[in-house]
Specification:
The protein is built from 16 helices and no strands. The protein is an all-alpha fold and 443 residues long.
Length: 443
């Protein structure tokens, strides 16, 4: 296979996944842009509510890494029955976990708000808005979990186009609901942060419905059967370290957000603007992780480990090139980008300084996503877990405390610490993939 063909097969999978990611980014942009224009307090509240909701979703669906590995191998080996059985059992498990998350989380809203945004640094208004947002978003969690499981099954079969279309519909619905409900256009009530949460929850419902319908039609390499719990055993066995990775990463991310909360409302407002902007790069990077995972799993299922290795490296290389261009955009247009979210000159100046630091991290994010996805696709979920322990937990949090608080660099120190984490994980995962121990893993 020529280099052009190698790059083409990565792009064929990554481009629809990137478009899907852009819709997710648009969803995040919509919430933050509309809330930022509505009030700085509403935008600042997402530092708690948005972070917690995202963490719950990421941790609760971590096991879908096993779905990609098992279904991808089955597709590569031509075993459609195993792929369908795994997909069906995964949807049932996702629904059960989503319901448990929604019910359990509803009892912890106030404690979470106080832990993430404590007084006196954060106002009571910001905490109250965060509680309202989280309460509504929990209602959509079962659908979000089911959608994640269905998406993993489709991605494993090489279908990134259907999830992209589903996300486009979900993103459109979010815009149609969020934009009028937050300020209360015409006869509609002014719901503020709650209006944004309603739009996001509704988008979860629509996305899950479209993806499950696509699987049930069975026109692609992956369909769905009645749940057979035995099909989940290899998924759960592989997913143990993936769950550990997500727990480590998201726990570190929650502490990271809590540290930002201790810098005050203005820093929280700037940080949420930056998170929305950086999601352009992060979601694009994740698309190359999707491509790497699917290609590596399928090629290993077909018995071609050398081609699987080439697919992983090409996913990383194309991703680094694409995200380098995103980094240049962030660096050059820092002030106008932050200015989309706030009119406060101090917020814009602080956010622009941090965004230029984040620009350096963009190609590193692509390398981490692509190489981590490739390892998970091979069934090696332990290596990304170890990298998550060293990077987000040890390096990011230690550097954040040192730079932001001990050296009093504030939010700039936070973003320097984040970049140090991406550097460490990119090096770690690159060495691990090059060693090739993943070639001998059986699923």
């Amino acid at each position: 296979m020529t280099p052009r063909q190698q790059a083409r097969r990565v792009v064929d999978l990554a481009l629809p996944a990137a478009m899907q990611g852009l819709v997710i980014t648009a969803l995040m942009f919509t919430d933050r842009l509309v809330l930022g224009r509505y009030s700085d307090d509403a935008l600042a509240s997402l530092n708690t509510s948005g972070t917690v909701a995202w963490s719950l979703l990421m941790i609760g669906t971590a096991w879908t890494a096993g779905v990609v590995a098992v279904v991808g191998r089955a597709v590569g080996a031509g075993d459609r029955d195993r792929a369908a059985a795994t997909a069906g059992a995964s949807l049932a498990l996702a629904l059960a976990l989503g319901l448990a998350t929604a019910i359990g989380g509803s009892f912890l809203l106030e404690p979470i708000a106080y832990a993430m945004a404590p007084p006196p640094q954060t106002s009571a208004v910001v905490r109250a808005l965060a509680v309202d947002y989280m309460g509504i978003l929990l209602l959509g969690m079962p659908f979000a979990f089911v959608g994640a499981a269905a998406m993993a099954s489709l991605h494993a079969g090489g279908d990134t186009r259907t999830p992209a279309r589903a996300m486009a519909l979900a993103g459109l619905l979010n815009v149609l609901l969020t934009v009028p409900l937050v300020p209360g256009w015409g006869p509609l009530p002014e719901l503020g942060a709650s209006g944004a949460a309603i739009g996001t929850s509704a988008s979860f419902v629509l996305q899950a419905a479209v993806l499950v319908w696509a699987l049930r039609r069975g026109r692609g390499p992956v369909s769905v059967q009645r749940p057979r719990w035995a099909a989940l055993r290899p998924v759960l066995r592989i997913s143990g370290p993936a769950l550990g990775e997500r727990l480590l990463y998201q726990s570190g991310f929650l502490v990271f957000a809590a540290l930002v909360g201790r810098l005050g409302d203005q820093a929280m407002t700037a940080h949420q603007s930056l998170m929305a902007i950086e999601s352009l790069g992060f979601i694009a990077a994740d698309a190359f992780g999707v491509a790497g995972a699917a290609l590596v799993a399928q090629r290993l299922g077909a018995g071609d480990a050398d081609d699987a290795a080439r697919a992983g490296w090409w996913s990383a290389g194309v991703g680094v090139a694409a995200l380098s261009a995103v980094g240049v955009l962030f660096f050059v247009a820092a002030e106008p980008l932050v200015g989309l979210f706030s009119d406060d000159p101090q917020v814009i100046a602080l956010g622009a300084d941090c965004l230029r630091i984040g620009a350096v991290a963009q190609p590193l994010m692509a390398a981490v996503a692509a190489l981590g996805g490739s390892l998970r696709g091979a069934g090696d979920t332990a290596t990304p877990m170890r990298a998550a322990l060293v990077g987000p937990i040890v390096i990011r949090l230690a550097a954040c405390w040192l730079l932001a608080f001990e050296l009093e660099l504030g939010l700039v120190g936070v973003w320097l610490a984040s970049t140090a984490d991406w550097i460490a994980r990119a090096v770690w995962l690159g060495i691990a993939f090059a060693r090739g121990r993943w070639r001998s893993i059986r699923v």
